[in-house]
Amino acid sequence: MGYRFTDLTNACHDDWRAYIEHDFVRGLGDGTLAEGAFRHYLQQDYLFLIHFARAYALAAYKSRSLADLRQAHEGLKAILDVELDLHVGYCREWGIGEAELAQLPEARATMAYTRYVLDTGNRGDLLDLHVALAPCLVGYGEIATWLNAQSFTLRGKINPYDAWIAMYESDEFQGAMRAELEWLDTRLADVTPARFAELAEVFRDATRLEIDFWQMGLDRAI
Ligand SMILES: Cc1ncc(C[n+]2csc(CCO)c2C)c(N)n1
């Protein structure tokens, strides 16, 4: 007993590295990612964010304490009031208008990932749901840090994806990620080995679905 977040990444080390160091991520870093692939990713991410907001609403429903209820409420507000507005603005800069976003067909990879997270939360408790959400929240922060440590990464105007990296390296985002890590470390400290094994499976599955999401972008798959 006495688990922590890093035990989850260690339990699926190869999948975790395949997600963080995916070719899509490398293309964001060195600026070589095809624009059409990025645009497809942005479109599907709009749908992803809407379901992610629903997952925070589910976290509110699954909360037993006022503190957890408030945390879920803050997460839902952050997505609705900040992330989605930013995303719509970012899509506009990439030539994707709101009318287009409103009628997008949902790719299978988007469906699989978002419904997996929602089902995991429905089936399990608040910790299951947070563990299913962790690859998204913690992974993107780790990706920004990893990219900044790679010699191939280009920063500034020369890289069309610089704003994407900047978003996830920001103090605001890294702070939210650290708060989530603290919450997870506290909860994981008390779980039994059998319970940890269940949570490690959820974490690995969600990580594999993040890998599929990158691949969907690269392949422009629907
Ligand atoms: C496929 C996919 N995975 C993760 C993120 C990252 N992300 C989505 S919402 C959120 C924080 C909400 O407050 C973060 C970090 C993404 N955009 N798309």
From TrEMBL:
DNA repair among keywords: no
Keyword Hydrolase: yes
Family stated for the protein in its record: Belongs to the TenA family.
Gene3D superfamilies: Heme oxygenase-like
Pathway per the UniProt entry: Cofactor biosynthesis; thiamine diphosphate biosynthesis
Domain named Thiaminase-2/PQQC: residues: 16-219
Keywords: Hydrolase, Thiamine biosynthesis
Recorded catalytic activity of this chain's protein: thiamine + H2O = 5-(2-hydroxyethyl)-4-methylthiazole + 4-amino-5-hydroxymethyl-2-methylpyrimidine + H(+); 4-amino-5-aminomethyl-2-methylpyrimidine + H2O = 4-amino-5-hydroxymethyl-2-methylpyrimidine + NH4(+)
InterPro entries cross-referenced by the UniProt entry: Haem_Oase-like_multi-hlx (IPR016084), Thiaminase-2/PQQC (IPR004305), Thiaminase_II (IPR027574), Thiamine_Salvage_TenA (IPR050967)
Enzyme Commission designation: 3.5.99.2
Protein name: Aminopyrimidine aminohydrolase
Function as written in the Swiss-Prot or TrEMBL entry: Catalyzes an amino-pyrimidine hydrolysis reaction at the C5' of the pyrimidine moiety of thiamine compounds, a reaction that is part of a thiamine salvage pathway.
Regions annotated as coiled coil: none
